[in-house]
């Protein structure tokens, strides 16, 4: 299976919090991939030896590489992590993909003949065939349509994501263009209730972003808000330190913190 074909499974397993192994078989210019989770091959078939190696990789948390007939086998154990699909080829799409990769997310990029591989280093899958989006989107998907100024295929991408009931459908757009895209979705028989539930546009949190990098940060901040269930408020409002100031002045608070954040990008 290709990277694009297994992307929906990656989204599903990650959403369910399951560990899995990506099995990649390189033979000449061909690359075949599948996933192993809970001791089962999820797409296609593998012989018992390869399944055993996948289970070993998951148990040890280590990548296993092995030469096979006419090629190479690479098995990568994966911890659950968010997966997003970026539709577009402009500068904001590039920075969304780059920042998401740096955050340790799985990223796929889809366009319509306008995506250049050299612009999206580190992403898991790239396709210039918009029709493949139909295969990639599932109900666990986060889909971000990000073409500054808009492109003709934006509405088709939005329609596919809405039709497949993606969990989060984001559109980079002005207020007027967002209204236009909503009207076009309604004309394609997507119910307004579904649009209000799934479509996020204009996309991003209001942090005063101006540059492409800042806009990408704003967009991914909204993605994290959806993923993690935050409030969107300043942390100082949520955890007001002045409420504990009297205890601090009285020496009742020690200077220690047990919180140790984990990193997806360094797993």
Automatic annotation (TrEMBL):
Q: What InterPro entries has UniProt attached to this entry?
A: MoCofactor_Util/Proc, XdhC_Rossmann_dom
Q: What is the lineage of its organism?
A: Archaea, Thermoproteota, Thermoprotei, Sulfolobales, Sulfolobaceae
For this entry, the protein name equals: XdhC Rossmann domain-containing protein
Report which residue ranges the record marks as coiled coil.
none
Q: Name one Pfam family in it.
A: XdhC_C
Which part of the chain is the XdhC Rossmann domain?
A: 84-223
